[in-house]
Write a structure and sequence with these properties.
By secondary structure, the protein is of the alpha+beta class. It has a single domain (3-125), classed as Aminopeptidase (3-Layer(aba) Sandwich). The protein is built from 5 helices and 7 strands. The longest helix is centred in the first third of the chain and has 16 residues, at 13-28.
């Protein structure tokens, strides 16, 4: 499988809303309160919210394709767009998702390779992210790729306060 990466543009907002909702629902709906979850989805992945994020010069979204099929996406934050760490030497990987039907095909590893290439090209010292403490599959994935835990922060799904582990990969 040869992955193709394309930076998202404002005209991609509808496709970004769809893949954002679909992948987040597949990953987390079953583990959350239905009302809190639906409220979160409607707010976090609304067209207006994602269009605003796309317009932020400190955020970058990429679509990931297998030939013509959209199979995933990721979002990077720099500078003031970072949600927790605000270090000019870092980039935050805020979102990285693969469509459920394509999971287990090493697409995540291919995406991470592309991300690391971009981070190095931008001259940053490290990449960091938050991952839900109850997502052992994702935690193992990141640890296999050299990420190490350096802290925690709260993450809210509606009114439900959850805990994300903060993981870092020094370049």
């Amino acid at each position: 499988m040869k992955l193709d990466f394309r930076q998202c543009e404002i005209s991609d907002v509808d496709a970004l809303v769809k893949i954002s909702k679909d992948t987040f629902v597949d990953a987390f709906e079953k583990d959350n309160d239905p009302v809190d979850f639906q409220n979160y989805i409607q707010k976090a992945f609304s067209p207006g919210r994602l269009e605003s994020e796309l317009k932020n010069p400190d955020s970058i979204f990429y679509f990931v394709f297998d030939e013509e099929t959209l199979v995933g996406y990721y979002k990077l934050n720099m500078g003031k767009a970072q949600t927790d760490v605000h270090d000019e030497d870092s980039i935050e990987l805020e979102r990285i998702y693969v469509i459920q039907a394509y999971q287990g095909q090493k697409i995540g590893a291919g995406m991470l390779s592309h991300i690391l290439h971009l981070v190095k090209k931008l001259g940053k010292a490290y990449l960091w992210l938050g991952v839900w403490e109850h997502n052992p599959k994702a935690i193992r994935f990141y640890q296999r790729h050299g990420f190490q835990k350096f802290g925690e922060h709260p993450y809210y799904i509606g009114n439900d306060k959850q805990t994300d582990w903060l993981l870092r990969l020094d370049l």
